[in-house]
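Sorry to interrupt, but I need a hand with the structure work. Please put the record directly below this note.
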Amino acid sequence: MLRDVMRETREFPNLPYEGHEEELPQRFQQAFIQGLHQAHKEILQELRQTLLKIVRIRFPNALRLAKKQTLMIEDSVILRDLIVKMSTAQYTEEAVMHLLEVDEEEEEE
């Protein structure tokens, strides 16, 4: 029954029939890894949107720089740290400094 349900999904249309179970673990692993990559992309996009929303509200003059800097960030830890820094920055100059430091942080990794 599980095999029939899985065959109906987009990810497993050519699921092997009985007797070909050795192919299942590799296909599950591929689907799992693909799902992880997709989830990571979605998390990065959500973090970018959160950061830009904070900058748009608190430091509208730094929005263009924030958009430019966040496009190239592929590390969720850096984005989370930047969200905290933008949330606690007192002045636009401080926010700009944090945004410019992103290049240095990415080079260190």
